[in-house]
Amino acid sequence: MKLDTPEGNFPPTRRTMAASLFFVGYATAAASSCASPVTTPSDELVVEDVHINGAGGYALPAYVARPSGRERHGAIIVVNEIFGIHDYIKDVCRRFAREGYVAIAPDYFDRAGDPAPMTDMTAIRDIVATANNEQVMGDTQGAIEWLKAQSSSNDRIGITGFCWGGTVVWMAAARFPDVKAGVAWYGRLVRPAPGSWGADEDRPWPYDIGGTLHTPVLGLYAENDRGIPLESVEQMRASLSAADNPSHSEIIVYPGVQHGFHADYRESYNAEAAADGWARCLAWFRANGVA
After folding, report:
1. Does residue 163 carry a catalytic annotation?
2. Residue 225 appears among annotated catalytic residues
3. 23-27, 98-102, 116-120: least confidently modelled range
4. Catalytic residue, candidates 259, 262, 264, 281
5. Per the domain annotation, does 203 fall within a domain?
6. pTM score, whole prediction
7. Which of 34, 66, 146, 209 has the fewest CB atoms within 10 Å, i.e. is most exposed?
8. Annotation marks residue 214 as catalytic
């Protein structure tokens, strides 16, 4: 038996089995006995499903949560993991809304299907592979334009994302001047090794654009991430420093935790690291004018 992960292949040992819920899919992990998902109420919020103008003019679904009332608020684009727009991602949007933001989670995988209920990682990866970098950037541009057109949001836009979405954060922060700040949770930083999942697409990765990054990004990473080794984190830090870090970006590594430490539906969840990361995330956005 071999566990196929989004960021590498590892045989199932006693150590890796504790983290394996991440790799069997959202549906299985969320229903497991170890899951204790946070549920953020939607009272006094406006929660709705909308469509934005995605890449190629595609009508892309998106989940939105925002404070009620007529005031204008800062906005956060929330980029999902490989499992799509499931309850955890929607809850993150509601958490931001309770902090006074308009939060939008575009359904980047909608063209190919919904990976959230799936348990077959091969099928999930096939869906994710259809969302190439340029398409994702076009969809993100659509989210930015949608936010700029709303009476409920101002032009102070941030972006955050988890795992697959963490990589998107770095790329979007280098692409879009409308994005004022980003927070990337354990997203891949360097090109996958030849033959690994994701290596076939001819595209830049965060390490490749670190020297030209001007939008400040806070990276939140895990010491024991078996798919994102600390070596790649140091490579990214070197990439940022090579340009004297004009963006003032930085990376925090949480000791003793695993990939997915913020995902409260997984066994890899670490409440202390998740709470500290969330506090840093909010402080980062506010310090960089996203409010």
Report:
1. yes
2. yes
3. 23-27
4. 259
5. yes
6. 0.90
7. 34
8. no
